[in-house]
């Protein structure tokens, strides 16, 4: 039993060692080949990088620009010293607004400022008592989560009915305009995104195809030596990974450069018109990572499809 | 001796041409067979079918009791990994060194880099190419290329070694060296099929020969078919020395 376990462990370790060796060799071969075709590789990376930079700009900056709008909710009340109920009310309101967040009715809730003003009591029994005014501003964003103006109305009514809320500054009209812009922006972003991702896939596919054409003889030799498709395909998949990574690197560089070149003119604009547009230049790293992760996945998938197509054609030619 | 391979009424048609016609023959384990005939007579087609690089239009090939046409795709790949093939014009991957090219069949079989390295060194010693291990294919002479391909075929301890005109592009001395190497491998137990149209080789060696003419096979059996080629090898060595 113990001998069997030892043998199994040894076989597993040997298999892992083999896989590690094979992937290392395939990756190094893929890298060397890309380096041997510098113009072709640079061309592919340049095209991919620029397409991805555009993708990032449209998906992240444009969507951000469209949702920069918020509704502000004020809460204000008088609280008798030394009662702690007033402080609790602020917390209650905060919890209520956070529950909207949990239900997905609002995009974000932010406590913006809290002012405490003291005043001598004029109505209470004891004229020596002091009242304190807590005025807290909550900023909530609703535009990108609410699907219709009816939903917006319902939410606003709920907020107005809340006895803890003194004043709401939000206009239905501005919501409608904003909602239309967001809807249009979403459609535009999806269309442009699909087009650009397709373009990136096409570049990867075409580059891998060119490489496979160039290494026809090698594929034929490997095939005759009994190599499986998986073995033949491995270096080309790594080429897809490297092209994807290089494209992503270049797109990030382009986006960061674009951001830095926009910061100054936008801050001037902001100073002139009090605009919030400067916010579009900030980078949402979570969104960027998701988009680029998908791009990497797609570039490997594209390399896989390309090798599959080519190997099938190669097999048909042989037969 | 047990039968290793059997051709049963094998024919191969290409558009406008018949490469093999109703070929029936068998080869025993550990045998060396010459395959002779003029250019275009079907020698290469015969070898390609044994190596599963081509399929018969009719008939069947049975190897070790298994029909090759019944093998699954994975089974075909595994079978190809057991066949050694030496071409007239050796085929190598230019990006790999001699050692990497020779070790390739072992990588396909799942050997780790360390094991591959050890075995490659041993087989390169055997064919006299150990000092060229790190060279690339274009740097090798014709004879060295042929030796490297033999090394690649040998490293897997093949079920059968196929040589398609292995000396066709070499000078006399190199050719004799390569033939001596193939004979030695057969003496050690490897089954070998050598395609050639070298009449001198056919007439001066005690092995069976299959003669192909326009796709039809005739077998020339020799009385001394299992005699070890000691006398001949000595003569070859003498010729090399001269």
Describe this protein's structure.
The complex is a heterodimer of chains A (319) and B (242). With 319 residues, chain A is of the alpha+beta class. Chain A folds into 2 domains: 25-70 and 178-318, no CATH class; 77-170, Alpha-Beta Plaits (2-Layer Sandwich). Chain A has helices at residues 2-36, 38-67, 85-103, 149-160, 172-214, 216-224, 229-273, 285-318; strands at 71-80, 108-120, 130-141, 167-169. Chain A is elongated, with a radius of gyration of 30 Å. The two termini of chain A are 49 Å apart. Residues 80-84 and 274-278 of chain A have low confidence and may be disordered. By secondary structure, chain B is α/β, with parallel strands linked by helices. In chain B, the strands form 2 sheets. In chain B, strands 6-7-8-3-9-10 form a 6-stranded mixed sheet, sandwiched between helices. In chain B, strands 2-1-4-5 form a 4-stranded antiparallel sheet, covered by helices on one side. In chain B, helix 3 (98-108) runs parallel beside helix 5. The interface between A and B is medium-sized, with 23 and 26 residues.
